[in-house]
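User: Some background: our group keeps a shared notebook of sequences we're curious about, and every so often someone picks one and asks for a predicted structure to add to the entry. Today it's my turn. The entry only has the sequence so far, pasted here. Could you supply the structure so I can complete it?
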Amino acid sequence: MNQLREQVLTLVKRSQNVKFSGKRITGRFTFEEKEDITLIQSFEAGDFVSIAKFTTKDDCYEIDKNINYSLTIVDTADQYASYESYIEHVLEDESYDTSPDEIIVYEDKYDFKNSSDNTLLPTLELIFKFINCLKEQYYFKDKQIVIFAQTHCEIPTMPSGTKRYLDTAKLYLSSVKTSKPRSSESGNLCTIIEKFTSWLNADINNDDDEVKKSLLVHETERNTIVASIVIDSLVGVEKEDRIFSLLQNLESTYQSVLSKYALYLDDFKFSKFNDKITEHSEKFLEKANDIITNLQTQILAIPVTIALISMAKFSAKINSLVIGSICVYSVMVLYATFQQGYNLWHLRCQINGFVAENKIPDALLDKWNSEITPVKVKIITHAGYLLLVCALIIFVIVNCLDYFYNWNMTTPLEQLLSSTNPPLK
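Assistant: Of course. Here's the predicted structure to add to the notebook entry:
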């Protein structure tokens, strides 16, 4: 606060019979020392003309004498003579965005000059922020907020209802003192209206278009829920009483809104989970089939290798290099089989952890179980199939090793050399 305002405030606080009306302050001032006379003379000299116009019909400036004066506060958008002027300006000026710390209402300063309690300005500011929020979220014209749901409700903002707004602000301040000490919200209307305003003004900006679209859906439903509950709460209330009825019963309105919105989110989540369950069960089934498909081409040669090794038992014409190649190939296929077995086990772990990770509601567990049962059957079937494949591959490897252990022919190198350099006749 600048020095000029400090001196105006000093004049007002030290005056008697002070009355505030619109932009005007009237009162009686007593000269107690020479500085008081100097102060009044500076007012008359026009030193304060930029913020206030001072007039008086008295001209006896002596110690212990009184003068009656009138002070008209200049409209600078950050100072007001009375609550009346302040409330009218805030409710009628749609561009108003000044915080309580940046303005002065002389009536407020005068009322609380000898009190350690909070002034009414911060509480009034909370109320006006809530009203401005309703203006932004719904339709506002001719000093009325029009809320639409299945029907509509007109709520006049009542800029001239100064006393009723002050009574409401006092009710909010008293609720802070009487609210439960362990709860910052229950019964505390100041906290409730602040949270309600923040909830209505929730930011929907997001770089992800899908997320933003989802948030926009929630915002529309949120406003619809608020509208329907507010309209129901104001049924039978006179038009000029509606804004004050809404403010005074805000706690029950807020709780009803949160409860109804929670039900909406549950329904929304239910449908989302339903789609998610179907999507993931299909993905799990696809993964299970892919695991066997990826191995299928590698194990198709196993019957041929078994037949070839059986022939080698009875024919010495089978090249040892062929048997060795089959052994190496079988080891590679066995490794691939173990790898696909691990993938199958990992898929089973993913399925078991899906419920806990995604917090599926109990109501959807039966659907999840029915959707995932075919996948579990597939996993068990594939696991048995992999065990059979492993047994066959091990059988091939063992026979290959047995062949080399018992062979009595020439070594593979000798066979290779003999095939490239046949003996001379």
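Suggested note for the entry: The radius of gyration is 43 Å. Confidence is low (pLDDT under 50) at residues 208-215, 408-417.
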